[in-house]
Queue: 2 jobs
Job 1
Amino acid sequence: MKLQKNTRLALYSVLEFALDPARQISAAEIAVKYGVSPHHLAKVLSELARAGVVESVRGVGGGYRFAGNARRLTLMDVIGMFEELSEPDAERREPGERTPVGRALSAVLSEIDEIATATFSSITLATMLRLLERQQRDATAASRTPAGGGKDVVRRATRRG
Amino acid sequence: MAARRARQERPDGGQVEAAGGVSGAPAVRAVRRGDLPEIIALDAAVTGIEKRNYWHSIFRRYGVAGDAERQFLVAEDGGAVVGFVIGEVRDWEFGSPPCGWVFAIDVRPDARQRGVGAQLLTAISAGFRRAGVTKVRTMLARDNTLILSFFRSQGMMAGPFIPLETDLEQGRGGRR
């Protein structure tokens, strides 16, 4: 499952807001962090606000802040706001999908979609935040590892890049 | 057997907590024969099927207190069983080095949302650690969002194995 740009932006944004629910964050700040145009992001944020996931804060230092429930909201809930997840109607299917080969390929693709859907549906924002925390903890621990450890790996990766 | 489903509801909070249920933090201990009627009732309430013979055979196999490789633990609160977890260490199955498998976990609906499942998982994981393994696995239906979310919330992620299956045709051997 390849997520569309808006969906990824929505997920980045929602997680940024959920990291610190009390904090107001401007669209510009998120746009800079993720290297996207503020104009593009504004559309995504307004969609999230319409859904009640974030709320806009007006005035000086305004922006948005998290308004959802991180323990209930799943990645799939956010994805579903921006992407069509159901099987396409018969008339919207590509002609090739009706052939025997097309049907066999569709069965495999459906299998992949079902697994992706199950995965996204089972991960709440709270779980994502814990994952993020764990990754940061691991990264910190790796960076403290003496020679041959984390820093060295980072240097090698940088050289390759 | 896969970790079983309770009810198909929203993860992490979609369940209604019954009033007047249980109190305080439950104690996790090894199962006793006297717990079986409550376990059978809990399982029947959640799955809709009473499996008396099955549970007695599970008790015979896993109900050995002090065996870290085969564990059948219950969470007890106010003298009542409010949850259970079952698992065992399996060696080299599917080519995998020894690891702990959790194959059943359930919490009474009126005791959910209070960390009982996490407590049970922590306890069985500690047992696995004592048995010398460093990894714990489970398997469940992919539409079982509730339990899938629970395991995810405990830090579990997709492992390196993919389960496959096929229907066997009646009266024919070999592959389809």
Note: Chain B has one domain: 27-153.
Job 2
Amino acid sequence: MLFFGPIYGLINSYMSDINELVDQIKQATDYQINKRILREKIITDLHFTYNGGLFKATPELFSFVVCWNSEELFLEDTYQNPIKVNRKEFIDVCGQHYQMAMNHWHIEHEQLKRTRKV
Amino acid sequence: MNNSNAPAKSRGVVLFAHNTPTVNYERIAEQASRLITYTLNLPTTIITAVDDTSNVRIGYANATPWYNMGRYRAYDLSPYDETILLDSDYLILDNNLLKILDTTIDYAIMDKNQSPTGTVDTPAILSIPMVWATAVIFKKTSKAKLLFDLVARIQRNYGYYKRLYHLKSNNFRNDYAFAIADNIVNGYQPRQGIPWTMLTADKPIKKLEIKNNNIILREEKSAHVIPRQSIHIIDKDYLQSDEYVEFVDTVCQIK
């Protein structure tokens, strides 16, 4: 019995190491899942309101308004309503909103790339 | 030009909470109310025991009573001109819903839902787009009133509507009633709801933490790093736990 004592101790020690490893693996986080969730959140954040309409700040929308040749226009919002837009004002709001959301995305994404375990 | 004499429209959040033998919804709603006050800076009204007609919950907490029959009364019971109607298990951690209040639409319902792993429970409604009554935003307009009146009618005549819309489930859910009512109000045409996806944590939760503006969601077999956003939590046991209260305490302390 005295001979087996240290062996049992060793086995117990290995088992507790394995249990610890299993716990750590369970807490490992999946980069691809986190990346997708982050993208969904940024899509939410890209939405902004202007003059009672809801818009998603996209490069296409921004470019279209920048290229428009008069100071007032009507844009279709997310809810398919025509919204009266002051071109300069809209460019400011849309541009700032786009910049803010995309900067946030970049920062959060860089953090996520480094996160393997939580 | 804005009319400076026009009275400001009141805004607030309405929660329904009716305790069951297994779930203390009032406790859950109190914590939800703290998060709402902190995040949206809006008053919250918790409506309790509005209807004693019990339903039977299928799926989560199998075959326990479930009081979900009074939601159609939100239009009349809401003291606000502009209301965000929420389930008490929807944790408000960002202010994106305020954007919908700033638009001119009469109402909007959440119509996209996703779990962290990208899956959602299969809806029993097949013939029209599904909506999630977890978050409904409405203003006191005739169109919004029509929506809630229709939800009441669908609830009263659920057997008929169940067959008409080929619902697979016998169990009444507000999600189905709002989906059908929304479809009818909009002339049987698909309509844009809240234009982003609701995140639903559909597995039992071990722990929820907030670190560096990220939420760490620990489930039994995995963990997710979620950017700070509102989350729909299915696990009612976690929502009744002291750990959840501690999580809300932490959120409300972060400046």
Note: Chain B has one domain: 11-197.
